[in-house]
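REQUEST FORM: STRUCTURE PREDICTION
Request ID: SP-0412
Submitted by: Lab K.M.
Chain count: 1
Length (residues): 204
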Amino acid sequence: MSDLTESQQRLLTLLEDRGLDALRTVLETRTRLLRRPYAFEFEEPHKTRSFSPSAAYAVVVGDLDVDENIITAGPSSGALIVLGTLRCRNILSAPDCATYAQAIDVSGLVYAATQDSTLFAAADAKAKVAYSGHGDGWLSVGGSARIDVLDDYVEMRDESQLHVKQPDVRAADLVISELCSNDGGLDRERALALFSKTGKLLMN
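STATUS: Completed
RESULT:
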């Protein structure tokens, strides 16, 4: 590829060095992140209680381990790329935001149905509850997916790799809808509080 920004070149080098071929293919074929001159901010892998990207286009160089909640919204619409496994209790794929990880391991809720959102695991994904689809946003998985409770659908090349214990369960629409206010804007503190409440509600 030509005319890449310095940060895009660094991203490609990291993907190659770490052998993340599936994730690289996703970024090259399913997004415009390597076709237009985006500038990425890089963060070292770390463990934290909750997480939202500090930049519109953020790359975590390794695993992202979060004790509680991830809200995939930076200062504006953008993208979060995790060069490893994304682990957390609950994750909200925020409006106009995309998240790409090598793998996703969520002990609670994956909410991937907000407007114009994408949540993509290049390899495998695990979740207790996944709310995905409904025409606005969804969870896409390149490998296998193991989900206890699924509302609607997960996008997969090989649907035989989707393992669900309890399909098609409606989950906490009214509480989740409060996360998106001001015509799609996101109040981060309020969203984190509501998301925590929703996760506890669904886990009971």
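NOTES: The CA atoms of residues 94 and 175 lie 15 Å apart.
Reviewed by: T.R.
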